[in-house]
Specification:
Number of domains: 3
CATH topology of the largest domain: D-Maltodextrin-Binding Protein, domain 2
Number of strands: 12
CATH superfamily of the largest domain: Periplasmic binding protein-like II
Strand content: 15-25%
Helix content: 40-55%
Largest sheet: 10 strands, mixed
Distance between the termini: 66 Å
Structural class: alpha/beta
Order of helices and strands: HHHHEEHEHEHEEEEHEHEHEEH
Number of helices: 11
Shape: elongated
């Protein structure tokens, strides 16, 4: 009888997908109010659903302070499984939609700065015109963070500027790119076509943040030519390509950015580009998808669409 009672109690704990989606949104945005805005519901609604979920499970899911919301150990465990459940739910809906001859659903993808700002928007717009019932949600982060988010299931697809060796990821080559040195129009190098790597040690630099694909590509090039970033004078680190461009345009130093990001600034002569005598700094952008779990039909079709646009 006791075992039957325990079994009945376990059966009462049924996870509600809507509550799980609210829970995951709060966990990712680290805020009840921002989660409410993102989901187009009120903050009291978010709070009541989280309270109901905690009561149902009998555990505390979040530690709350006036400034931030963080997952408890129990919350981290639930988040891991909730993302899997929500992804499988989305996959099921999209696969069933095939029987109706349509493509519906939501794809959450992540992208590093250059693809997110300069490459993907036009492709996404074209895709959404072709498939109006599909919804694309892009989250912008560093290449390293995007890779981690695809691995842990937070994202289904990533577009990054570094090639990863992770075993559980499929790597799909997309656009090519070049990283170039930019200087102020009145800088001493502004009228030079080339400078040598050894000359870089004489200049103040603005760098992208750790985890940036642009930064990693630049540092790899330096290492190939016997120079460590520690030998450079780094006066500032910033979190975006736009910030690097504005820093250089304001005369704060020199920096390296993707050539895809500086069309307007070079045309308006706000900055100048200078290449290195040792050669061009080239790289490629990649799509990454997990190989250890099923991806949705929408993700498959969007990846194929990306390859066609690049091809």
């Amino acid at each position: 009888m006791k075992e039957m009672d325990e079994a009945r109690e376990r059966l009462k704990i049924r996870l509600d997908l809507w509550q799980l989606e609210i829970f995951c949104t709060v966990a990712e945005l680290k805020s009840f109010s921002r989660a409410a805005e993102a989901m187009f519901i009120t903050q009291p609604t978010v709070t009541s659903h989280i309270a109901a979920l905690e009561k149902r499970l009998g555990v505390k899911l979040f530690d709350r302070t006036t400034r931030k919301v963080t997952l408890t150990p129990a919350g981290e465990l639930l988040y891991k499984h909730a993302k899997v459940l929500l992804t499988e739910h989305e996959v099921a809906l999209q696969q069933l939609a095939k029987f109706q001859g349509g493509l519906i659903g939501r794809l959450v993808l992540g992208a590093s700065t250059i693809p997110a700002h300069y490459l993907l928007p036009s492709v996404m717009a074209k895709f959404c015109r072709n498939f109006p019932q599909a919804q694309l949600i892009m989250k912008v982060n560093s290449s390293v963070q995007v890779v981690e988010s695809v691995i842990n299931g937070e994202l289904e697809l990533g577009i990054v500027g570094v090639k990863t060796d992770e075993a559980n990821l499929k790597i799909i080559p997309l656009w090519g790119d070049e990283v170039v040195l930019i200087v102020h129009p009145e800088h001493e190098w502004a009228n030079r076509s080339f400078v040598s790597v050894s000359e870089l040690t004489s200049q103040p630099f603005v760098f992208r943040e750790e985890g940036s694909g642009t930064r990693k590509t630049f540092e790899q090039f330096l290492a190939q030519h016997g120079l460590s970033p520690k030998q450079l004078t780094i006066v500032s680190e910033v979190g975006s390509t736009e910030a690097v461009k504005h820093f250089v345009a304001s005369g704060g130093g020199v920096g390296f950015v993707s050539i895809r990001a500086i069309g307007c600034e070079t045309e308006q002569e706000q900055i100048k580009t200078v290449r290195l005598k040792e050669g061009r700094i080239t790289r490629q952008f990649y799509a990454i998808v997990p190989t250890d779990r099923t991806i949705s039909p929408l993700c498959e079709i969007f990846v194929q669409f990306l390859k066609e646009q690049v091809g």
